[in-house]
């Protein structure tokens, strides 16, 4: 990332909004999508915020993503609904489906939406924060193109299938947003460009040895699943559930080029804490967080999941949001012209 | 494990059943619990089958586990129910709660049961296979005593909170059953007693360096979460959800000795595949498995989660079920006297 530029939240939102409107999104949808994207950059998730917008616009121009498509309900036999994303904008489809799961959860205590035929949801944590802000537990995941060798294999046969688990807490939500590979290709490139080795083994080198060398893993295309055989197994079942419940594609049916990746399957589960449990829920979450609040082994602090996000959010809202220069210039070139 | 003894399924079931009845379980409950335990040993999960029975019986005798307690429904506002396990037999409480989640799922498409005040559920996979056999997706997890340092900490502040995800497939269910530590203490002891190093880093040694030496990790009490910071974060949110939904204890409130570990919180989610999706579900799962069916990098085969369990099950039903001699003799001493 070429850094050094900071912008206000309003500037970022407005620039992304105009770029999306120029790419064909209806005004209201461009505004919402720009908010989700600006929120991601504000929270420090640059790789899945602004930095993904040029690719999204290229995919709209190439006809892979349909800027006009709206998701539709296919069936709804109770608290589980099946939706079709019609290859529309992934973030908007996902946001709509988590909102639907939340609405079902308010009626039934729990709601599940399975979404077929959608596109990259950008930052998965978006939909976890969305659920937590609504006072609900949110669990969601997506499948992806094949980018990860399952345990034992040398070829990328499964996806890194990011999963999000969010717990509402008035004093700071607990949110996990993680891909099932230990490091994304974006993260590997970052370590390489900074001349750093990985903090933990991240994949295999060309000789089949586990390594902390990011370039060796980029070359072998053998990143590691989290937990080795465990993350590999988890990737397979999450893909199966997403495809089976949505009736959509499994990872092995998704094209392997990043800008051809379309027709994804996703699952959104919401559990309404307010209606299903008593008021103790917030106190329980607070006590869990309080118990973790102590110095770490290396002299820092032990953090709860979501804590660093809030710290970054607060800092960037004051200092300005750091933006990648090339992504920013790309958007400015669209919106200023 | 001192091996060398093989018994038939019927012998194993009957011996466990009689031991549990002698420990105070009502006849029908002893029979069901013995089936769950014998199934675990049959499937090769010795550590969480027969080998846990002596400890269960000691905990009943010590009054930590109440052999007579039955779980009761506390509240049921829709498709989410809260149950109290009354510190009864963990495996029976868990089996009952997954059965309840399955019944809710048949009505609503999805069902969730949160269980407070229960005990060790033995093999978590039991409840995944239970859901899959009923034609449903099953997702469940438990919290545990504090046995795992969260990322950054040197003390065991969080649990290894096993999670199970099961997908029904007529040609062989897909079942993941995994603790969130990379290796359990039982697994570490096994590697150490065989004089083996771990296949991947499993924890920190006394100097804070990552190591494959099982004895060094047993000494430091610093096993690794799966995916390092990722599994650590997942452990925290799963604990929070289980405690918040059930109204029960979080890990930091659970006594740290294995035979004092009680008052656990668990979550059981079932999604009814038959009523929520069309018949394509089985074909989708079959295609995912077929795509993985190829030679592995080391000349073996790539397996889907659950495949090895079925292989072991078939083999042990023919050859007899391997039993740990000391556990077997302990049970025989109870049941023969």
Write structural notes for this entry.
The structure is a homodimer of 337-residue chains. By secondary structure, chain A is an alpha+beta fold. Chain A folds into 2 domains: 94 residues, Orthogonal Bundle (Hypothetical Oxidoreductase Yiak, Chain: A, domain 1), CATH 1.10.1530; 180 residues, 2-Layer Sandwich (Ribosomal Protein S8, Chain: A, domain 1), CATH 3.30.1370. In chain A, α1 crosses α2, α4 packs parallel to α5 and α6 crosses α7. The mean pLDDT of chain A is 94. At the A-B interface, β4, β6, β7, α8 and β10 of A face β4, β6, β7, α8 and β10 of B.
The residue fraction in helices of chain A comes out at 40-55%
Work out the helix count of chain A.
12
Neighbour order of strands in the largest sheet of chain A: 2-3-4-10-5-6-7
Order of helices and strands of chain A: EHHHEEHEHEEEHEEHHEHHHEH
